[in-house]
Amino acid sequence: MTAKKPVVSAAFTAVWADYPIHVKCKGGRTAIIEQERYEEDPGKDDFTGASPFQHTFWPFDGHTTKNSNHALHDTDGDGGVEIYHRVRFRVDKDGRLGGASAWDYSPITKYSHF
Once rounded to an integer, what is the mean pLDDT over residues 78-95? Predict the structure, then answer.
C-alpha cells in the first residue's frame, strides 16, 4: 500500500485535491484501508478529514488505485496549503482480520493560489 502524492486541481472558484492510494494484494483477500488527510503547519498539523476504503481481490492477485477527492481550504489564512495524507490497512482473509499495518505517508504537495 502506498500513499501517493496529492494532486491539486482548480476550476472556477473551487480547488480540489485527489489523494491517491495504490493498493496491491494477493487474490482471495480484502484490503480494508484507513486514510487520514492533513495540512502541514509549524507545530501541529491540521487534521482535515478521514476516509475508509475497501477492495476485494478475487480470485487473482492484483492492484488498483483508490482516489479520494476533497475540496481544499486555506486552513490558516496564509494563502496556501501544504497537504499530505497517510494510509494503513488490514487484510481480511476468510473472515479473519489481520492487524493494522504501519502508516505510510505521502509526499507533501504545496498549493498557493487561493
Answer: 94
What does the mean pLDDT of the chain come to? 93
Instruction: Give the pLDDT confidence score for residue 114 in this predicted structure.
Output: 61
Complete DSSP assignment for the chain: -EEPPPEEEEETTEEEEE--EEEEE-TTEEEEEEEEEEE--SSSPEEEEEEEEEEEE-SS-EEEEE--EEE---TTSSS-EEEEEEEEEEEEETTEEPPPPPPEEPPPEEE---
Other beta carbons within 10 angstroms of residue 17's beta carbon come to 20
CA dist list (Å): 94 to 29, 77, 91: 8, 48, 10
